[in-house]
Amino acid sequence: MQDTITKTPKLEDSRILYEDDEHQYIWFGWEEEEGTESFVQTNQCLILNHDQGYFFDPGGTYVFHHVLENIARYVNPRQLRYIIATHQDPDVCSSIPYWMKATDAELLISRLWLHFVSHFGLEDVSRVLPVPDGGVRIKLNSGDELLMIPAHFLHSEGNFCIYDSRSQILFSGDIGAAIFPHGERYLFVEDFQQHLHYCAGFHKRYMHSNRLCRMWAERVAKLPIRMIVPQHGAIYAGEQVGQFLSWFRDLKCGGDYAEQIYANERF
Ligand SMILES: [Fe+2]
Ligand SMILES: [Fe+2]
Description:
single chain, Metallo-beta-lactamase, Chain A, 7-stranded mixed β-sheet, 13 strands, binds fe (ii) ion, RibonucZ/Hydroxyglut_hydro, ODP_dom, Metallo-B-lactamas, Metallo-beta-lactamase superfamily protein
């Protein structure tokens, strides 16, 4: 496979977001090559708990070799217990056939996408576990839990966020995503109003409707959350978490703009 993505030298490509004697939460960020517009930048996360690994969202085919190399700096890929895909998009899991060969992990993905991931080239789905709409609790060896929390229609019909009870970090998939101009990327959100320039447009079109945003934001706000890590763009930490959740709760998007979106139809 040809590697067409290079790391941007400006920004680090991995960071330990949480660490104690039993548990590590590591962020990886991959960026498209400077000067190309073909790929959207993606974040991956790895949790290590008592020598077992939990990895999400694995990413697209073209980042596979880079991501595997980086993961291997922290854990033997054969120690990955679960690979989790928040939803079915190619930037989330088109690399899945390679990961299934490189690891012995099982893939957790919404039951809606069980028979669709095969189209990325996965012949054997015996290690693909369909997640029911209500989500799942994954017990870690330390006694902590990883929660796959429903986030359906935000933006995929079968969609989950991943909450780690030990670190209190929420991996939110495409919720909270930002797309930066080349060279403008930063790791943590510092000025929320400024950050909206990079994420508001994405949410208005890719998210379903205010009803679903509100439902999700109100449920998630009940959890103690130290950080929100989206699949694209920057991390919300500390007071930025509340800022983002209250913005998202009131967001009008998708179907709320149906008339506007269809205004220029030619048929
Ligand atoms: Fe997506
Ligand atoms: Fe995405």
